[in-house]
Amino acid sequence: MEYRKLTSEEISILEKQKCRSDNWDTVFVKDNFRANYLINSSFEGKIFIGENVKIKNSNLKNYKIEDECIIENVYSLSVEGETTFGNGITINVLNEGGGRELLIYDKLSSQIAYLIVTCRHDETLISKLNEMIKKYSAIIKSDLGFVGKGSIIKNCGFIKNVLIGECSKIEGAAKLSEGTIASSKFDPVYIGSNVIASHFIIQSGSVVNDGSIIENSFIGQGVRIGKQYSIENCAFFCNCEGFHGEAVSVFAGPYTVTHHKSTLLIAAMFSFYNAGSGSNQSNHMYKLGPIHQGILERGAKTGSFSYMLWPSRVGAFSVVIGKHYNNFDTSEFPFSYINEEDGKSLLTPAMNLFTVGTKRDSEKWPARDRRKDIEKFDIVNFELFNPFIVMRVLQGINVLSNLLEKAKKEQEFVTYKGLTIKRLLIKTCIKYYELILKIFIGSQLVKRLEKFSDIKSALNYNENLFSYQWIDFAGMFISKNDYHKIQELIKSNSISDLKKLREELNKINDDYVESAWSWTAKLIEERFGKKPSDLSKEQVIQIISDWKENSIKLNNMILKDAEKEFDQNSKIGFGIDGDSEIQEKDFESVRGKFDENKFVANLKKDSELISKKAEEIISRLLTI
Known about the structure:
The chain is of the alpha/beta class. The strands form four sheets. It has a 34-stranded mixed sheet that branches. A three-stranded parallel sheet has the order 29-32-35, with no helix packed on it. Helix 5 (about 385-405) packs antiparallel against helix 6 (about 425-450), helix 6 (about 425-450) packs across helix 10 (about 510-530) and helix 11 runs antiparallel to helix 13 (about 600-620). It is globular. The termini are far apart.
């Protein structure tokens, strides 16, 4: 629908309703414009107003207001000169001192950001990616702001050079400048009271509230920021949560969560991370300044008042407890505990595999994906046992075996990459890592046998998809071959725009199942000395049996850990003024019984299903 100038009658009505403009000729409206919906407001520069728009007690300059919008009690909504609305601005992620600059834009994904932040050694790649973002940002550049259809903006202070997507709801924001609120009708954005944000991008489905401060930062889809949280030079990707504390120069991959006061996240890369209260890190050694960084791989946690000195690296699904004043690298040891003991960083590999928390986390993440938008930018793979994790397990087995072989029997500890490991635990840790291998190989094989009616077809694989090295690509698992392939396509200009790059990443992700099977097939070949298609029936049955046995064993060990939540120590504080009988009843009324717990029941059911599935497949194999 075309816009038109105001009629003299409409101008008269507006002026009677205390509306003002330095030039009514630059105010344009649609045919069904209702002048009586505009009260006590000023209009400066170019203004476009859609249908059923209500504006009251507000001051607008150079904005296009789409249909069905409400703007009320807004001190200033303006665009001053040309702006890209936060697109193309540079933020210093991961390293406060610079060197890993990330150009942000309103369709940025965790994967594209990962390439830009981690591949600084490849100047051509970085140049091409930055060129794409600058090109995209140039298209958005305008001297006219935009408020999308169905948006509500009330009781706000200054809003300057902000592009506001459809169905946005902004209530009580103190100051917003140089940014994009990429809201959508499928997944609106909410900006609440006393929020201050400058040089920012906020994607669909996110909530920023309660006096939070955002500066030079990116907020992805389905993120929750509130309770005075402070963010500077950070990128928070899908389903992250930040409350109370502070983040500086953080690459917060999907599902990074921090809820507590006095928690500082600084100069680090996380994903699927949970920060304990008072977690802290130090990114400089009082020499050349804050130039150091930390990596916490997928699923890591930090205990209350933990401290780490950067540079350090924590392996996937590991827990850090205590204060660590030396640099360490546990990337080859997933599912570990890292404790501080007598000033040393004590590593216990594999032991976090059997905790309720690890199992519960891996199950809750898919259910907590808040993204409702049609287009989801971050690619997220929730699979617990996958080629990346199992590659790390294999590395861990190799390192531990070598350490054990070289250690003397009188040694109590061995050391590795800043870590101390109890020698007598090494054999047990290797055994637990072997359990993961058997579960992974068996589960992959079961999926194939369920998918194909013909066993030969099930056991065949595409050798072209094989790559020994895998990467956790900020939530997406990708083979090193595909990772290099995507980089070469960018550098050769075969991928020359951001849309094509996202499409190629999604295509690679679509092939994950086949790529993962190719990797598993090679692992089977290494362990059995023959390709899966050449395995005997008995060997296939053995793999399925091992999968069943070890999966149920793992579940049973997790159940034992869950039982601790119902032991006598857990009942301390219950039945405060009563005897042991009242204590028991009080505990059950609040916490329930072990056997009736939902997590426990689901875990037992999982074991039953595993057993049933294994028996069905083995029975089918025996008939061939």
